[in-house]
Amino acid sequence: MSKVQTPNVLVVGAGSMGMVVGYFLTRAHAQVTYLVRPNRAEELDRTQQLYCYDDNSLKHYHSYKVLTDPSEISKESYEYVIVALDAASLQNEEGRALVRSMGAAFRDTSTKFVLGTVAIGIRDWFLETSGLDATRVTLGLMPIHAYPTDRAILEVHAPTNPALIVQADVAYTDRMGAGFVVLDTAPEVAKPFAELYNQCGVSTASVVPEQDTMTNVDSLLAVMVASELVDWPRLAELPAHKELWGVTTAAVKEIRSLGVHGEPGLRAAESTTEESLARSMKVWEKSMLPFDLQGFNQFHHGAKVKKQDRLHLRTCVSIGEAEGKPMLGLKDLLGRVERHDQE
């Protein structure tokens, strides 16, 4: 019988994304270590309960290690480091110091990085700050929707069991086809990481073209801003706000047509209408049931990563203007939400 390999994986950050990814990698026979703040380490000093909407059950997760001091990461060799921090946290003073520490610790190793942070230009920033070689760093996204149950309460739809959610630390659903998406920016990282993840047997990872993926991810943030402006109605109800939906559709088209999104973005922008965007949002929302998608979006995009999202959209405006595009729809949306914040 062949010996099962046990690759070491370091996950930087133990929020919902970090916990769910770590759980699946543990099922794939990886040894997962978390690098977290000291107060978070105390919370992880017990079995974590993960509620899965897809089979209405609790998963028990305990086979992991925890570090709190970045200087300790150099004492172990790791096949992969997954950075599970949002852009605002990663790029603040503490985050920059952490990235420099990781660069110093792993520069002369073969450790590969999966950067799970959504922001235009974040990979280039990470490479410059860490000093790591570009062939060793790729971008990753988690289509799995996960949230901490002590910070968000979502509407319950049958057959969800609210009694089990109360017992959980994190709740998640894996209904988007791939549980983890690795962009093809650095194929030497993306392909083997996806192969490792896929050994978990209960979720799948796929390697996808960067421009195809980011075209949709970046433009979706305009829909999140529109949702916030009218207090997070169902996505299927959002187009009823006709004037706002027209501005939102214009913003989506502007973002998709940015040069960073290449030919896939231009094709997507050309095919985007108010009707087609409304249909895609309705299908997405329905496909996520019994998971309450807009309840999740309100927590995630309306609170947790709001600062990151706003920065991301302002960057889109700057890029567009540099390309000679007025970006009127997106600037209109951002102006509205900034006024909304002040009310």
UniProtKB/TrEMBL annotation:
- Ranges of residues in domain Ketopantoate reductase N-terminal: 9-90
Which range is the signal sequence, renumbered to this chain? none
Quote the InterPro entries the UniProt record gives.
KPR_N (IPR013332), NAD(P)-bd_dom_sf (IPR036291)
Determine the domain of life of the protein's source: Eukaryota
Listed SUPFAM superfamilies: NAD(P)-binding Rossmann-fold domains
Gene3D superfamilies per the record?
NAD(P)-binding Rossmann-like Domain (3.40.50.720)
Coiled-coil regions, chain positions = none
The name this protein goes by in its record: Ketopantoate reductase N-terminal domain-containing protein
Q: Which organism is it from?
A: Penicillium chermesinum
What does the record give as the organism's lineage? Eukaryota, Fungi, Dikarya, Ascomycota, Pezizomycotina
